Amino acid sequence: MNIGKFYSKPKHTFFSPSWEYYLGQADVNNPFLVNDLKALILHKEKDILTQFAGMGVDAGTGVGAESMTAKYRFYNIFDWKEPVAVAYTEFVKEQYKMFLKEFGLSIPPTWGRCWANVLRNKQSIKSHNHGCDSYSYLSGHFVLATQNTGTYYQNPADLTWHKEENIPGRLTFFPSYLQHWTDEYTGGEERITLAFDLYVADEEFRKTNHYGYFHDEHDAPEIQLL
User: Fold this and answer.
1) What is the DSSP pairing of strand 111-119 with strand 223-224?
2) Structure pTM?
3) Quick check: is 81 in a domain?
4) What is the pLDDT of residues 151-198, one digit of tens each?
5) Does 59 reside within a domain?
6) How many CA atoms lie within 13 A of 106 on its CB side?
7) Residue 146: which of 172, 173, 113, 118 has the closest Cα?
8) In angstroms, what is the C-alpha Rg of the chain?
9) Residue 175 within a domain
10) Listed residue (216, 224, 198, 222) closest to 52, CA to CA
11) 5 in helix, strand or coil?
Protein backbone atom coordinates (compact mmCIF):
# COMPACT_ATOMS: atom_id res chain seq x y z
CA MET A 1 0.00 0.00 0.00
CA ASN A 2 1.41 3.36 -1.05
CA ILE A 3 0.17 6.40 0.86
CA GLY A 4 0.15 9.90 -0.58
CA LYS A 5 -0.25 12.85 1.79
CA PHE A 6 -1.57 16.19 0.55
CA TYR A 7 -1.77 19.26 2.75
CA SER A 8 -2.04 23.04 2.74
CA LYS A 9 0.73 25.52 3.40
CA PRO A 10 1.22 26.69 7.00
CA LYS A 11 -1.43 29.09 8.25
CA HIS A 12 -0.33 32.72 8.65
CA THR A 13 -3.56 34.00 10.14
CA PHE A 14 -6.23 32.56 12.41
CA PHE A 15 -8.70 32.58 9.50
CA SER A 16 -6.45 31.02 6.88
CA PRO A 17 -7.77 27.72 5.49
CA SER A 18 -5.99 24.48 6.22
CA TRP A 19 -6.53 20.94 4.98
CA GLU A 20 -4.93 17.54 4.91
CA TYR A 21 -5.95 14.31 3.22
CA TYR A 22 -4.49 11.00 2.07
CA LEU A 23 -4.74 8.71 -0.94
CA GLY A 24 -4.00 5.00 -0.64
CA GLN A 25 -3.00 2.98 -3.71
CA ALA A 26 -2.30 -0.70 -4.31
CA ASP A 27 -1.83 -2.79 -7.44
CA VAL A 28 -3.36 -6.23 -7.86
CA ASN A 29 -0.87 -8.95 -8.77
CA ASN A 30 -3.34 -11.07 -10.73
CA PRO A 31 -3.85 -9.96 -14.37
CA PHE A 32 -6.57 -12.57 -14.82
CA LEU A 33 -8.68 -10.81 -12.20
CA VAL A 34 -8.53 -7.57 -14.20
CA ASN A 35 -9.33 -9.22 -17.53
CA ASP A 36 -12.09 -11.42 -16.15
CA LEU A 37 -13.72 -8.53 -14.31
CA LYS A 38 -13.67 -6.45 -17.49
CA ALA A 39 -15.39 -9.27 -19.37
CA LEU A 40 -17.97 -9.70 -16.59
CA ILE A 41 -18.88 -5.99 -16.57
CA LEU A 42 -19.36 -5.90 -20.34
CA HIS A 43 -21.38 -9.11 -20.18
CA LYS A 44 -23.76 -7.65 -17.58
CA GLU A 45 -23.93 -4.10 -18.98
CA LYS A 46 -26.81 -4.58 -21.43
CA ASP A 47 -29.00 -6.44 -18.94
CA ILE A 48 -28.49 -3.82 -16.21
CA LEU A 49 -29.21 -0.93 -18.57
CA THR A 50 -32.32 -2.69 -19.88
CA GLN A 51 -33.65 -3.70 -16.48
CA PHE A 52 -33.31 -0.19 -15.05
CA ALA A 53 -34.01 1.86 -18.18
CA GLY A 54 -35.36 5.31 -17.31
CA MET A 55 -34.25 5.00 -13.71
CA GLY A 56 -31.38 6.69 -11.89
CA VAL A 57 -29.27 9.81 -12.34
CA ASP A 58 -25.58 10.20 -13.13
CA ALA A 59 -24.94 12.23 -9.93
CA GLY A 60 -23.16 15.05 -11.74
CA THR A 61 -20.66 12.84 -13.56
CA GLY A 62 -21.92 13.86 -16.98
CA VAL A 63 -22.02 10.34 -18.39
CA GLY A 64 -25.78 10.36 -18.83
CA ALA A 65 -28.79 8.67 -17.26
CA GLU A 66 -28.52 5.51 -19.39
CA SER A 67 -25.10 4.47 -18.16
CA MET A 68 -23.75 1.93 -15.72
CA THR A 69 -22.72 4.87 -13.53
CA ALA A 70 -26.26 6.23 -13.31
CA LYS A 71 -27.60 2.83 -12.22
CA TYR A 72 -25.28 2.69 -9.20
CA ARG A 73 -28.19 2.43 -6.78
CA PHE A 74 -29.64 -0.65 -8.41
CA TYR A 75 -26.76 -3.12 -8.33
CA ASN A 76 -23.80 -3.74 -6.06
CA ILE A 77 -20.71 -5.50 -7.38
CA PHE A 78 -19.68 -6.27 -3.79
CA ASP A 79 -22.76 -8.53 -3.70
CA TRP A 80 -22.07 -10.43 -6.94
CA LYS A 81 -21.35 -14.15 -6.52
CA GLU A 82 -19.17 -14.81 -9.58
CA PRO A 83 -15.73 -16.00 -8.39
CA VAL A 84 -13.90 -13.07 -9.97
CA ALA A 85 -16.25 -10.57 -8.30
CA VAL A 86 -15.76 -12.30 -4.94
CA ALA A 87 -11.98 -12.19 -5.42
CA TYR A 88 -12.17 -8.46 -6.21
CA THR A 89 -14.25 -7.77 -3.11
CA GLU A 90 -11.75 -9.65 -0.95
CA PHE A 91 -8.91 -7.62 -2.47
CA VAL A 92 -10.70 -4.37 -1.61
CA LYS A 93 -11.34 -5.56 1.94
CA GLU A 94 -7.71 -6.52 2.53
CA GLN A 95 -6.40 -3.25 1.14
CA TYR A 96 -8.95 -1.29 3.20
CA LYS A 97 -7.57 -2.97 6.33
CA MET A 98 -4.04 -2.06 5.29
CA PHE A 99 -5.03 1.55 4.59
CA LEU A 100 -6.51 2.00 8.07
CA LYS A 101 -3.52 0.24 9.63
CA GLU A 102 -1.22 2.91 8.17
CA PHE A 103 -2.92 5.43 10.50
CA GLY A 104 -3.25 3.17 13.51
CA LEU A 105 -7.03 3.09 13.11
CA SER A 106 -9.26 0.26 14.24
CA ILE A 107 -11.65 -1.19 11.68
CA PRO A 108 -15.24 -0.11 12.34
CA PRO A 109 -18.30 -1.98 11.02
CA THR A 110 -18.18 -0.93 7.37
CA TRP A 111 -20.75 -1.09 4.59
CA GLY A 112 -20.09 -0.65 0.91
CA ARG A 113 -21.60 -0.20 -2.52
CA CYS A 114 -19.71 -0.73 -5.78
CA TRP A 115 -20.67 0.03 -9.37
CA ALA A 116 -19.03 0.21 -12.81
CA ASN A 117 -18.14 3.21 -14.96
CA VAL A 118 -18.01 2.28 -18.65
CA LEU A 119 -16.81 5.09 -20.90
CA ARG A 120 -16.44 5.04 -24.66
CA ASN A 121 -14.70 7.32 -27.14
CA LYS A 122 -14.96 11.05 -26.31
CA GLN A 123 -16.58 10.46 -22.90
CA SER A 124 -15.28 11.64 -19.54
CA ILE A 125 -16.37 11.83 -15.91
CA LYS A 126 -17.04 15.41 -14.85
CA SER A 127 -16.13 17.01 -11.53
CA HIS A 128 -18.11 15.52 -8.64
CA ASN A 129 -17.74 14.10 -5.14
CA HIS A 130 -19.31 11.17 -3.29
CA GLY A 131 -20.56 12.94 -0.18
CA CYS A 132 -19.71 15.90 2.07
CA ASP A 133 -22.00 15.45 5.05
CA SER A 134 -21.14 14.40 8.58
CA TYR A 135 -21.19 10.72 7.57
CA SER A 136 -18.65 11.23 4.77
CA TYR A 137 -15.99 8.51 4.87
CA LEU A 138 -14.02 6.75 2.11
CA SER A 139 -14.52 6.08 -1.57
CA GLY A 140 -12.35 4.47 -4.20
CA HIS A 141 -11.92 3.17 -7.70
CA PHE A 142 -10.28 0.20 -9.39
CA VAL A 143 -9.04 0.50 -12.96
CA LEU A 144 -9.85 -2.34 -15.37
CA ALA A 145 -9.16 -0.87 -18.80
CA THR A 146 -7.99 2.48 -20.17
CA GLN A 147 -5.41 4.20 -22.34
CA ASN A 148 -3.69 7.47 -21.42
CA THR A 149 -6.20 8.78 -18.88
CA GLY A 150 -5.89 10.09 -15.36
CA THR A 151 -8.06 11.05 -12.42
CA TYR A 152 -7.74 14.59 -11.05
CA TYR A 153 -8.22 15.32 -7.35
CA GLN A 154 -9.01 18.87 -6.30
CA ASN A 155 -7.54 20.20 -3.08
CA PRO A 156 -10.05 21.78 -0.69
CA ALA A 157 -10.18 25.58 -0.31
CA ASP A 158 -7.55 26.70 -2.84
CA LEU A 159 -9.03 24.53 -5.63
CA THR A 160 -5.68 23.45 -7.03
CA TRP A 161 -5.49 19.85 -8.22
CA HIS A 162 -3.13 17.00 -8.95
CA LYS A 163 -3.35 14.11 -11.40
CA GLU A 164 -3.01 10.38 -10.75
CA GLU A 165 -2.46 8.21 -13.82
CA ASN A 166 -5.04 5.46 -14.39
CA ILE A 167 -3.23 2.13 -14.48
CA PRO A 168 -5.14 -1.15 -15.02
CA GLY A 169 -5.08 -3.19 -11.83
CA ARG A 170 -4.63 -0.17 -9.55
CA LEU A 171 -6.90 0.43 -6.57
CA THR A 172 -7.17 3.93 -5.05
CA PHE A 173 -8.81 5.03 -1.80
CA PHE A 174 -9.69 8.70 -1.27
CA PRO A 175 -11.91 10.75 1.07
CA SER A 176 -15.49 10.76 -0.22
CA TYR A 177 -15.72 14.56 -0.02
CA LEU A 178 -12.84 15.09 -2.44
CA GLN A 179 -13.84 16.65 -5.74
CA HIS A 180 -12.48 14.61 -8.69
CA TRP A 181 -12.84 14.06 -12.45
CA THR A 182 -11.14 12.33 -15.37
CA ASP A 183 -9.60 13.08 -18.73
CA GLU A 184 -11.69 12.67 -21.84
CA TYR A 185 -11.17 9.14 -23.08
CA THR A 186 -10.19 8.57 -26.70
CA GLY A 187 -9.97 4.96 -27.77
CA GLY A 188 -11.61 2.22 -29.74
CA GLU A 189 -12.39 0.01 -26.75
CA GLU A 190 -14.09 0.77 -23.45
CA ARG A 191 -12.54 2.57 -20.50
CA ILE A 192 -13.77 0.63 -17.46
CA THR A 193 -13.35 1.37 -13.79
CA LEU A 194 -15.13 0.15 -10.68
CA ALA A 195 -16.06 2.83 -8.16
CA PHE A 196 -17.24 2.34 -4.61
CA ASP A 197 -18.33 4.08 -1.43
CA LEU A 198 -17.53 2.83 2.05
CA TYR A 199 -19.32 4.22 5.07
CA VAL A 200 -19.77 3.54 8.74
CA ALA A 201 -23.16 5.20 9.31
CA ASP A 202 -25.51 3.57 11.77
CA GLU A 203 -28.19 1.21 10.51
CA GLU A 204 -31.05 3.69 10.83
CA PHE A 205 -29.21 6.19 8.64
CA ARG A 206 -28.51 3.53 6.02
CA LYS A 207 -32.18 2.56 5.88
CA THR A 208 -33.45 6.09 5.33
CA ASN A 209 -30.70 7.84 3.37
CA HIS A 210 -28.30 7.12 0.58
CA TYR A 211 -26.41 10.21 -0.53
CA GLY A 212 -29.58 12.26 -0.77
CA TYR A 213 -31.86 9.60 -2.26
CA PHE A 214 -34.65 7.67 -0.57
CA HIS A 215 -34.44 3.93 -0.96
CA ASP A 216 -37.13 2.11 -2.93
CA GLU A 217 -37.87 -1.49 -3.81
CA HIS A 218 -35.38 -1.44 -6.70
CA ASP A 219 -32.35 -0.48 -4.63
CA ALA A 220 -29.64 -3.10 -4.21
CA PRO A 221 -28.51 -3.66 -0.61
CA GLU A 222 -25.38 -2.14 0.79
CA ILE A 223 -23.07 -4.93 1.86
CA GLN A 224 -21.41 -5.13 5.24
CA LEU A 225 -17.80 -5.76 4.29
CA LEU A 226 -16.22 -5.89 7.75
Assistant:
1) antiparallel
2) 0.92
3) yes
4) 999 999 888 999 999 999 999 999 999 999 999 999 999 999 999 999
5) yes
6) 2
7) 118
8) 17
9) yes
10) 216
11) strand
